[in-house]
Amino acid sequence: MVGVCLTFDNGPEPAVTPGVLDVLARRRVTATFFLVGAKLRDPAARACAERAKAEGHAIGNHTLTHGAPLGTRSAAEAVAEIAETDALLGALQGPDRLFRPNGGGGRLGPHLLNRAAADHLIAHRHTVLLWNAVPRDFADPEGWVATAHGMLRDVRGTVVLVLHDLPNGAMRQLDRFLGEAEQAGAVFGAAPPDDCVPLRRGVPAEGFAQYVSD
């Protein structure tokens, strides 16, 4: 039996996110949605985010534009990517003020944050949630399910799985994936492991520095 913390990045997308929410509701699975702030300026996209929160899903900040990773940006740009999204999220955020940096294809490393971004997250008591399983549904909309099943088998401990509610057709496979995973013994709704939470309510864990560029 493997615990799965299910997350979705890069939405909300009015053509896709409602269908994802329908599947999650039918399967009684809760997830965390990390939203691209600029998309919330579209009322239809914001309505998707409001529905997700109303249905018990957590909402997090996934930068304003999902451009270059923050560790490669200037101090002012990196802070603006976080702060402007926080402002757009408003009451959609919970007390943990969840944040996920973009890694550029799921990579982990010091390119995720620069010092200004890290200091801002600490000062504003954010919780950073990273990942340990990225089946690349954004690049392989048909084949990602098999990749994800392999990751559920291979990752030791709780799996923090990253999917994307994007309009590339990948989420048409979501219901099948959830059903197969549950039949194989996966339990969704697990808390993320400590090594995927390097910052918790503004308090850095021992490994936080490895995600911050000099």
Automatic annotation (TrEMBL):
Judging by the UniProt lineage, the source's domain of life is Bacteria
The record's section on SUPFAM superfamilies has: Glycoside hydrolase/deacetylase (SSF88713)
Record-annotated NodB homology domain positions: 2-189
Which residue ranges traverse the bilayer? none
Q: Does the keyword Metal-binding apply?
A: yes
Tell me the keywords, alphabetical order: Hydrolase, Metal-binding
Q: Is Nucleus there in the keyword field? A: no
What family is this protein classified in?
A: Belongs to the polysaccharide deacetylase family.
Say what the protein does. Is involved in generating a small heat-stable compound (Nod), an acylated oligomer of N-acetylglucosamine, that stimulates mitosis in various plant protoplasts.
By what name is this protein known?
A: Chitooligosaccharide deacetylase
Origin species, per record, is Neoroseomonas terrae
